[in-house]
Amino acid sequence: MNDRRRRTRVNFHALADIQVTGALLRGLETRDLSHKGVFVLGEHPLHEGQGCMVTVRLPGDPEEAPVLRMEGRVARVTPEGVAIDFVSMDPETYLHLRNLVILNAPDPDQAEAEFGTPAFDASSEVES
Length: 128
Fold this sequence. Notes:
By secondary structure, this protein is an alpha+beta fold. It has helices at residues 91-104, 108-114, and strands at 10-11, 15-20, 23-33, 37-41, 51-57, 67-77, 81-89.
């Protein structure tokens, strides 16, 4: 398999919701995460290029644990799950995501250096 990733991806199991036009998929399990995107396990009624909103609930007390909210685009659909590229996120989500990736990366220095380069183009179009 050709691994085209250019960003550090960390194993990260959490619950996620994906909202697309006409549907809200709740309680989905994530497999891994980078500051560019997330992989969600399972078969879902999504297609490549489809725009979505992704909400990831970090582990911990539901009342106090941070919630990450990102606008995304479905990058790949496989029998194993769905890869979603992030298109935009608020500054607080970015900070939590940055810390999560760096603290869990096999090479934290490399992961931190990757955050110096934009992971996504804010001007890219997302299909609804």
